[in-house]
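Researcher: Before we compare anything, I want clean individual predictions. No alignment, no superposition, just each chain on its own. First chain goes here; please echo the sequence and then give the structure tokens.
Model: Echoing the first chain and its structure:
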Amino acid sequence: MKTQLFSILLWLGVSMTIFSQDVDYSFYDTSLPIEDRAEILVSQMTLEEKISQLTNSSAGIPRLNILPYDWWNEALHGVARNGKATIFPQGIAVGATFDPDLAYKMADAISTEGRAKFKISQEKGNYSKFAGLTFWTPNVNIFRDPRWGRGQETYGEDPFLMSKIGVAFVKGLQGNDEKYLKAAACAKHFAVHSGPEKDRHHFNAEPNMQDFYETYMPAFEALVNEAKVEGVMAAYNAVFGDPSCSNKFLLQDLVREKWGFDGYIVSDCGAVNGVWEKHKKAETPQGGAALALNAGVDLNCGDTYRYLPKAVEEGLVSEEIIHKRTVQLYKTRFRLGLLDGKDSANPYSNISGDKIHCQEHIDLAREVAQKSIVLLKNKNNILPLSKDIKIPYLTGPFANSSDMLMGSYYGVSPSLVTILEGITDRLNPGTSLNYRSGALPFQKNINPKNWAPFVASESDVTICVVGLTADFEGEEVDAIASGNVGDKIDLKLPQNQIDYVKEIQERKGDSPFVLVIASGSPVSLEGIEEKCDAILQIWYPGEQGGNAVADVIFGDVSPSGHLPITFPKNIEQLPPYEDYSMQGRTYKYMKEEPMFPFGFGLTYSKTEIADLQLKSTKLKKGSDLVAIVKVSNTGEYDIDEVVQLYVCPKDVNGGIPLKSLKAFKRLALKKGETKEISFTVDSADLLIVDENGKKVWRKGEYKIVVGNSSPGELSTKLGAAVPQEKSIYLK
């Protein structure tokens, strides 16, 4: 029997480091259920070998023919930290597309490159960090406060939008094969985690149960239940008094039991150590390791699980739990096909290296960037500019910046296109394009002599590119230009940039001024906006950012992005950063008028929305809301538009949202074209989360609003379509 099995293993292409007559190799039998295969394999490991598998840098076990494997990999907007890869726009930009289908395509391209790189790495014997198939992506924490430096990694401030984009992204990463995962996605950071960065290792989030289930949980639940995400990452912080990594309510009661999660749970890196060292929930590292393992953390990113042998000796953790956690991790490895041999039936095992940074993916990166750019202002339709313009002037600290394109958690690319390069390539050869950076990114110019502002007075148009980078806002360990450990102190541009913009505005004369803002978060434009003729928010647009910006500025495509987060006027409009209550935050609860509202974004044309019809205006519990509306492009350009449906309760007592996005559709409209579209809002999405955290059918009157921005006078004042409204009654 064992001789026959050995022949099968050779046929599978298994490289037998050591072949032992004492090992049961039936775990290679792909006809067996994954659960059985994992159990067969792990049952043959010693306690020490099992523990060696519970950290991100998992050891090889030669006698079982197990290769080393490092679980730590990143793919936020492209395969990261692992050599050449296509750099797509940052997560917040993907949210601005309001396009789940595009997010799916992007993630599918990322996992294609990840598979190709994994195959090459394995052949080279590269088993290092960032070379695996377990991507710790996406970040679906709510961008609840625009000061949070890592908000750029998310898809915005709205749990519904976050869920839709997040689900699509996970499905794209993980593939659609019934048996195998293309890659393993991971929902992070669980839970209630969105700054401050300086406190992330020790703060305790205490949201009320209404905010917990209304705002902080929906995206995680959707990724588990709808997308079948393979991983969940436990955060650094505590929730309701218990560190996330030792929180049985989060990891057992909610994720495993209520949601039925059957993937692996990993700690954020160093977070298990934080259970005892930062949160003081244990007196020793072995005590902290035991708390995390018992609570449900299968994989320790870090090395605190090296104390598990001592924890076993002290009776803090059982060998049975160690066995169970190891089996869970191997279920993921079997789902990825990592132990099936190179000639297995896995459809993803032979993706070739020519898919890495291929033209198809480069073109897709450009498309995502195009569709993410938000036109915030376009006075007198100054944009698009003619490609035959005589004397354009491009300036600003990020006009020729590659770093600005990349955002955080990036890969590397040989073809980064700056805005200067993109615009230069688009203009008529007879055009006298001038360029000067004019200002340093984050500090005053060292030399006070600066001719750059004066060039504006000699130009037909000035395009000024300002903003931030991941050096200024981002994770605490990477934001080396931040004065606040990765977070922003306020919402303003750096003062030297503000001063430069104002000086140009004073000296430009009557020529138009176009402001291009690169950032991963809202930027306040008080004192600047008034003298801007056009404003483009481009986020961190990826390697094709320069081409995409040029495509929009010169009218090859109309801008079609919409804000996935509210842009406040100033920091005074925000509650305290440390407060995790949602009251006063985001479009759902904010009562003050912001600078730019959630969901807002202009095109080069004009959109009209008309004839809103509801299938029924009186709904019983269990009934779906069905709305039909006509959308027309009455302008002179072909466009993409994002139509949005909001539900607004007449009675907002009890802490419920003032308005909630419940459906959206992105559609293409040629000039003069009208389309009729329908929305179906599931009855479950009409439930209200009450003050006890329970979903209830709340009777009463509600207003249904369909437009191309969130409801409010500001949206229409800024140029959004006049929305259609109708009342419904929940009985």
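Researcher: Okay. Second chain, same rules.
Model: Second chain and its structure:
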Amino acid sequence: MTPAIPESLLKVCDLRVQFRLDKENSFEALKGINFDIPRNATVALVGESGSGKSVSALAIMGLLPEENTSIDPASSIVFGGQELLTLTRAERRRLCGKEIAMIFQEPMSSLNPVFTVGFQIGEVLRKHMGMTAKQARVRAIALLLEVGIPDATVKIDAYPNQMSGGQQQRVMIAMAIACEPKLLIADEPTTALDVTIQQQIRALLAALQKRLGMSMLFITHDLGLAGEIADHVIVMRSGEIREQGTAHQIFQQPADAYTKALLHCRPTLDKRPWRLPVIDDCMNGQVTSQLALTERPRGCTGDEDVLLEVRNLSKSFYSRDGLFVRREFQAVKDVSFTLARGKTIGIVGESGSGKTTLGLTLLRLHQASSGQVFFEGKELLAMPKKEFMAYKRRIQIVFQNPYASLNPRFTVGQILLEPMHIHGFGADDKERTAMALQLLEKVGLSGAAFVRYPHEFSGGQRQRIAIARCLTMQPEILVCDESVSALDVSVQAQVLNLLQDLQDEFGLSYIFISHDLSVVKYMADQVLVMHQGRVVERANSDELYRNPTHAYTKVLLSSIPTALHAASCAGVHH
């Protein structure tokens, strides 16, 4: 007996979207895509940045900018039997927010900072449900409780900046489900969240989808996450759909080379190839080369040359509670570890565990409350500023956000030349320019990048520029603070390969801070697990992942999406 075909809630047919760049040129963002979203089902839209995922969602919501966007007249988006593209703006507004709702990627830019979260949830209820202010407040409290925010009667009067990233995302979910929509669009709702919060949001969305009987379009660049939550998966690239099918089909029997490439690029817990395959390797059939199959050994024996030693490091922040009371918050509590020359120590933990504060304190970007940091036997924290200048260049940091860490008013050349000039590298500008061009080549960028500005580059390219800037100082230690967390899996693989190449060539030591446990497993020789400012477990990476001893470590490891691991075990990675 042939299984029944699920009834479609939303049907997209031949959707073509163009953006006008200027009077003569345009860019085709969507090239005639077709897909259905069945009722009571979750569909994942997967692909790299620029593939057209978010443009598809914004077209459904009617949020594409009218002044420079054109949708082909032959395109069709049918929701519940109604053609959306022929609706007036007022009709579309009444529909979107009530029957179709969207969770945006970045809650801090989506929530209004000058209004309380209660007001913002209540606005949706007053606008679409006709509730009074009192009714909306009662319903908003119930929604906050439903999405798992404790002390909802207090939090309802909080402003977005007074809540954590996970809580902000929960507020966005509460706003989206306030009117119990038939279709929920979630655009990268967990990208910047750590694995435990990711799991909570994932479970919350699945429970809400089941309880409300709604359909969900889940947009992500993380195939592992898609496999955890979706019934159907659509793989996009460059405005086209490369492959679509059930989640089982996509993970166990991918047909398209690009889908296979996305699966290969992601580090997994069961393998550590010498180099991670990138998209081009997979598309050219080179993924099974001996280079990709060779395992890279990791771990420390204890006999290595110690480059950095941290003893009992603590960092506290203070705030005022009234006129006379000063409250202390201990962000880092009595942390000790050693870093060997040419090795990588991974630091993992949830947001707020103290990972970034630890890294910034090591570089004296925060003043330590107590403890000592020894670099080749020299105590850094007590060192006068003038003497520390010589050591400052030897310990560099790659920040999480390449969009914020590069000066938008400087060309790439100026960004690279400035630190060399300050620290006296090179005899003159000509020699420094030659060194900068060599570094650009080293990180995989052409010399043409030298005269361009940061906004002209992609996120992955900007992170390469940030790494090149660090290399101008010829450092011995790089602190990588979530430096690949916001990158697509293919770009992430390129940057991880670059970091490994630099370590192999220059003997660099890394302090690799991340909430992505699969990436840390791939990069780190040793792992520190931090929880509430303390190191709760320390071990060689293979041993820690194979045999965790602390309960918190076990919780972290159990939160890793398992779909990619299952795909690997099924032979996709061979």
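Researcher: What stands out in the second chain?
Model: Residues 566-574 have pLDDT under 50 and may be disordered. Additionally, Residues 373 and 379 are 6 Å apart (CA to CA).
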